[in-house]
């Protein structure tokens, strides 16, 4: 096939013509034989093409050579052929060994030359994620080949081309930046360690889009699982005295306050998402700067975990009074408080400012074992999956959700006794111990070790739907906001 465009003749083989025709048809959503901005926007969403705000507009301007408002097949092919020539040059810049492959060592070198240091783990993650996205785009079938004992992945020219052919620039810096932030969400790590943002993302506002998408996911997830959360708190505080079980607990809540009472305390639980996320993000960024010997240095996973844990402690310290109010509101009887401000006023009037930090110590102590075990198990499960599926792409969404759910459950098992003691101290039950050690002693004497896990069943039940809802909502909101995956 020969494509005539102005003074340029583009010759294509049958295979090249078929591939470009299939891609054009995928982008031509309304099937009218030409692509406009609406087609391109819808196609990028349907194909889940990694992109950034303004990507579609820039892409369209490159292809629409005659500024007619639409892209014809001739324009598409002409630009794509030239674009692929430039992509080939960028690939050769990375392929220092001239073996037709890009491996982790070459990728680490390129990032280092750009002033950004990444370790082998992130390099392999980027290589693996590229192949996964190529598979997801249905442009071609991509398989992962494990090439050495260190599980170093390699990317071929064809895979490089298929990933970046819909990227509007061939500038190596821009392409690599897009690649690094175009990977699928890591459910386990994203729950533990705040997202990393480059200076460009901080300046352009990409960071607040991430936080907004995460906040929306948290709001819907917490609201959907609020009845289970309220039941857990009631079982923790009153389960032993009144021999409350799950079924009887639900009946009691409905009988006492109607179906709306199932969501008591959810308002403040949702409100505290914004200040907690913002504080954690700001503190995390400051801690990272202090930990870096070189501004261009990238932190490893354990350094990020340590920074994230410290940021979590600072954020929890600041918003902890809201945690106490949430517990009081969850446990309130009908008519006890008229709202959040009334609850805060009565709590302060009873015990002063110290009442807003009841249970603070077990809460802070519980952050480290929960986050540490959660992270360790999540990474272990992903490693086991990779070992048993050496010829497959990155773990898919279902595998990642399963890993995230399992690791979160194990983290809760380790930290739950501290969470239970914290809740009982926050509730300030009359006649109960007033210190962490005293509360542990009382529970063990009256209920034995099993008492430390009272209320854990509804907590386990809510983990899977909470993680799944968060993921689905985050995906939809981040697409609406033009957020790239991190």
Automatic annotation (TrEMBL):
<keyword id="KW-0999">Mitochondrion inner membrane</keyword>
<dbReference type="InterPro" id="IPR018108">
    <property type="entry name" value="MCP_transmembrane"/>
</dbReference>
<dbReference type="GO" id="GO:0005509">
    <property type="term" value="F:calcium ion binding"/>
</dbReference>
<feature type="repeat" description="Solcar">
    <location>
        <begin position="395"/>
        <end position="480"/>
    </location>
</feature>
<dbReference type="InterPro" id="IPR002067">
    <property type="entry name" value="MCP"/>
</dbReference>
<dbReference type="Pfam" id="PF13202">
    <property type="entry name" value="EF-hand_5"/>
</dbReference>
<dbReference type="InterPro" id="IPR023395">
    <property type="entry name" value="MCP_dom_sf"/>
</dbReference>
<dbReference type="InterPro" id="IPR018247">
    <property type="entry name" value="EF_Hand_1_Ca_BS"/>
</dbReference>
<keyword id="KW-1133">Transmembrane helix</keyword>
<keyword id="KW-0812">Transmembrane</keyword>
<feature type="repeat" description="Solcar">
    <location>
        <begin position="205"/>
        <end position="290"/>
    </location>
</feature>
<dbReference type="Pfam" id="PF00153">
    <property type="entry name" value="Mito_carr"/>
</dbReference>
<feature type="repeat" description="Solcar">
    <location>
        <begin position="299"/>
        <end position="384"/>
    </location>
</feature>
<dbReference type="GO" id="GO:0055085">
    <property type="term" value="P:transmembrane transport"/>
</dbReference>
<keyword id="KW-0677">Repeat</keyword>
<feature type="domain" description="EF-hand">
    <location>
        <begin position="82"/>
        <end position="117"/>
    </location>
</feature>
<keyword id="KW-0106">Calcium</keyword>
<keyword id="KW-0496">Mitochondrion</keyword>
<keyword id="KW-0479">Metal-binding</keyword>
<dbReference type="GO" id="GO:0005743">
    <property type="term" value="C:mitochondrial inner membrane"/>
</dbReference>
<dbReference type="Pfam" id="PF13499">
    <property type="entry name" value="EF-hand_7"/>
</dbReference>
<keyword id="KW-0813">Transport</keyword>
<dbReference type="InterPro" id="IPR002048">
    <property type="entry name" value="EF_hand_dom"/>
</dbReference>
<dbReference type="InterPro" id="IPR011992">
    <property type="entry name" value="EF-hand-dom_pair"/>
</dbReference>
<protein>
    <recommendedName>
        <fullName>EF-hand domain-containing protein</fullName>
    </recommendedName>
</protein>
<feature type="domain" description="EF-hand">
    <location>
        <begin position="15"/>
        <end position="50"/>
    </location>
</feature>
<comment type="similarity">
    <text>Belongs to the mitochondrial carrier (TC 2.A.29) family.</text>
</comment>
<keyword id="KW-0472">Membrane</keyword>
